[in-house]
Amino acid sequence: MKRRDFLKVSAASAAVASVTGCSSDSAEPAKPIEQPITDPIAGESHAWAQCQSNCWAWCPLKVITKDGKIIRIEPHTEGDDNFDSGFIHNKACAKGLMLKELVYSPERLTKPLKRVGKRGEGKFEEISWEQAASEIAQSLRSTIDSCGNRAVMLGNGSGAAHSSYPIMGPHVRLMNLLGGFQKTYGYYSACMKEQAIPYTFGPSTKNLAYGQGTGSSSVTEMKHSDYILSFGYNPLEMFMTGGGEGHHFAQTLESNDIKFVYVDPRYTDTCLGREDDWLGIRPGTDGALIEAIFHQVLVAYGYDSETNTFADKRGNWANTAILGLTNKSLEEYKTKLELELESGEITDGNAQYAEHIEPEDNLYDYIMGTFTGKAKTPEWAAPICGVPAGKIREVAQDLLSADAPFICSGQGIQRNACGEQVMRAIYTLPVLLNAIGRRGTNNGDLPMVAAAGPGAAMIPMAFWSDPTVPGFIGGTAPASVVKAKIPTYKTFEAMVRGHEMTERSDGVLGMTVDSDTPENDEKYGTNIKFLMTIAGNTVNQHGDIEEVKKVLSLEPTPGQKEEPGLDMHVVIDTQMTPTAQWADIVLPDTTWTERYDYIASDNTTVYTVPSIEPIGDSKPVFEFLVMLAEEMGVTGFATKGLTQEAMTKTFIDEAVNGPMGDPTLPHWSDHEEHGYVFTHKFEEPSIGMEKEFNQRGGGVKLSTPSTLVEAYSPRLAWIASDKGWDKDEEYVDGGVTALPKYLRTWEDFEDQDAIDEGFEFQLVNYHTKGRAHSTFHNCPTLRKVYEDAIWINPYDANNLGIISGEMVDVASPRGTIEVPAKVTTRIAMGVVAIGQGAWHKKLGNKDVGGCANTLTRQKPTPLAKGNPMNSVRVRITKA
Ligand SMILES: Nc1nc2c(c(=O)[nH]1)N[C@H]1C(S)=C(S)[C@@H](COP(=O)(O)OP(=O)(O)OC[C@H]3O[C@@H](n4cnc5c(=O)[nH]c(N)nc54)[C@H](O)[C@@H]3O)O[C@H]1N2
Ligand SMILES: Nc1nc2c(c(=O)[nH]1)N[C@H]1C(S)=C(S)[C@@H](COP(=O)(O)OP(=O)(O)OC[C@H]3O[C@@H](n4cnc5c(=O)[nH]c(N)nc54)[C@H](O)[C@@H]3O)O[C@H]1N2
Ligand code: SF4
Ligand SMILES: [Mo]
């Protein structure tokens, strides 16, 4: 079994028992690289660790020590950089190489701490691990007893992504053994597209975010394309591992004759002369650009309303693949559903929404303006998106004449108040063009991350968190009784009004919805009262820091489900972060160099052994959870007295020999004998959605209720109706529509109220090369190399009389940050941009740390209830 196939299996735990071993027929053996050594002359030793930061690459790190201290970190240098060989090696970027600065940082946590002042005041006293375990156990027990397991939340944290321990690890198992907990859904990375995909391509297209299970093609497929259209897909900044995806992307463009058009308000390092065109679009307006492209394509196809056909290249194919392309097609579909309802023989899950289908609201007529008089021409779109009409025509023409257009997107584009809409439009585009499911094309999504899939890394995670996994050392744990899931972006709101949340009002999944009477919908029933965050800097990384702080400073009201205020906030990290400052108890975890661990990505397996002793009194989170389990009187927790080393070996043994294992992976004994890092042959994945779009007879078969691409979604028509979800008055059309439409939202390009209040600029807060989110922020070298400054166009800067390097105040209705300006033509006019993840540091009424979330808003998107961090308007003034 390929590791990617395993992912699919592990997602569906019901299928687990039927999986028997793996075939190793075609697999080339993994290659070991470099043994740990001791250099007797220099007196240096080295061992291997892994960069576990959430950048999806998990580069092996060679940790060089002398006299028990890390003296430097080196990348691994064996293997090759050629994707065609299949043995890609992940060479650490500047961040991983600066790990030493994190291990020995002044902010490094070395002792368990207990708050002494008010929450958030930042005053702590040192306590023992025993006291910490006992106080946490007491508080946890009392929250569960008085408010139930739904009141207990494990906070979001991605700081040690795919480690066997801090993420999705022993804490999940422990909480399940205690009767369950709230683990939110809809992660910050991709939750708008996670909603957009099932509505468009069907639920089976969605299993994991991050380009892994979104049906997209691999980045390796690009070499078969002749035209790449990227909506903010930015591999040279997002996938920095040398030899990995960014490198491969650059190689592909250099060695093939491909036209590359990059759409982003920022001119990123993905361009740097590789692009044929950079379209410096306004944030949140890609939907308008795409509608104008639809217009040009539909005009070129020509529509014969008599026969209800288009003269597209494949002979009316798009009209048979897309639900809702024309009035007639949608009318026929509605009639079919009505007949099903009448006869009672319902085969189509959309039948229940038949009455909400409005055939006149089809894509063709909407774009042509047949009933509205507003055609979505390039001339209509240009003043909205800022891309000249001539350019839009050129893109449409190129898309029409290319043999294999590869349309793709990043995720910043969907971190927007209309993120679901724009993603549904992007998914529809390649279908309309018949540029999907075949060589050199893509489904519009983030290309599969070729060098950095989590692969077998999921195995230990599954063991910890999936109680159905057989054979696990701890036996089986009961599944969580808490089925309801709150959207991640409502985490803090749920501390104040979780008790009244329903699926319809707040997107809480897994609860009963009474489809006609919202008053009868099941309520979540309690506020969140206990929060434990491991490897997350949530205060810094959630929207609107001041609002987050306000919620965290509410006094606890123990036992009162409907009253706000956390009983306890526990943070387990390696650094004294802005989030740890807001904890009641802070616990010092070990870093990636101080514990055993195991991560296997698609192309590398690293068995990490500690290269130094834990600093101070820090302890692997695993060992603390064993203590907590004992305090709580939980039996059957996973350890059976094993050390972390033995535990890790058990994981590897299961990953290789277990019922779901992959025998082509090296065993721990192979690691000990041959090397702590192995590279695996990366097999080029198949073309995205090839199966779904190449049915016998040229048909399309998706897992949507209609089996077609639901550009028009009957369920969304219901949600948008009066009987559906609550309307959001700050959106035109309530923010949800059956067709993907460019919608006006709050703080968008056209928000005249905000502009009148002086919030003249749109703000993009991107993922900078200098951090993985907030991780690595406190590395002084990185802060010098990657300047945290607000990008502003020379035209705008000139109007404000601002020069590069000058300190400016960037203010939104939520707060103000003070940062230097960087005057550059690399940003569209009217837009400013800053790297997200800088640590919030309040001085007076300003955040002098420059955290983007001092500016962002906590209002969720209408459908996914996700984080629209790029829907922010700001005012710029001299500091
Ligand atoms: N404004 C804005 N905000 C955003 C985004 C945005 O684009 N704009 N992006 C969002 C996205 S996509 C994401 S994924 C989130 C990420 O948000 P988080 O998941 O909070 O990620 P980090 O900020 O990197 O914080 C990770 C923490 O884990 C700690 N850590 C690292 N290793 C270990 C370990 O081994 N053990 C323990 N116990 N702790 C460890 C680090 O010190 C750090 O404090 O941010 C989101 N926030
Ligand atoms: N160096 C580095 N790499 C990372 C991370 C990191 O923090 N640092 N984080 C990792 C993680 S967890 C994630 S989720 C991914 C994040 O990956 P993404 O979410 O794709 O990254 P962003 O930088 O937020 O956005 C990508 C680009 O989209 C642009 N953009 C923003 N709004 C719009 C818009 O409305 N339209 C268009 N066309 N473009 C827009 C931004 O300017 C940016 O250049 O990256 C991963 N890789
Ligand atoms: S931050 Fe990403 S690319 Fe850089 S070393 Fe870590 S895993 Fe590799
Ligand atoms: Mo992310």
Automatic annotation (TrEMBL):
Keywords from the UniProt entry: Iron, Iron-sulfur, Metal-binding, Molybdenum, Oxidoreductase
UniProt xrefs under SMART domains: Molybdop_Fe4S4
Keyword Metal-binding tagged: yes
Cofactor(s) essential for the protein: Mo-bis(molybdopterin guanine dinucleotide)
Pfam families per record: Molybdop_Fe4S4, Molybdopterin, Molydop_binding
InterPro entries in the record: Asp_de-COase-like_dom_sf, MoPterin_dinucl-bd_dom, Mopterin_OxRdtase, Mopterin_OxRdtase_4Fe-4S_dom, Mopterin_OxRdtase_prok_CS, Prok_Mopterin_Oxidored
Organism domain of life: Bacteria
PROSITE patterns named in the record: 4FE4S_MOW_BIS_MGD (PS51669), MOLYBDOPTERIN_PROK_2 (PS00490), PROKAR_LIPOPROTEIN (PS51257)
Every 4Fe-4S Mo/W bis-MGD-type domain range: 44-107
Keyword Electron transport: no
Similarity comment text for this entry: Belongs to the prokaryotic molybdopterin-containing oxidoreductase family.
PANTHER family: DIMETHYL SULFOXIDE REDUCTASE DMSA (PTHR43742:SF3), TRIMETHYLAMINE-N-OXIDE REDUCTASE (PTHR43742)
Protein name as it appears in the record: Molybdopterin-dependent oxidoreductase
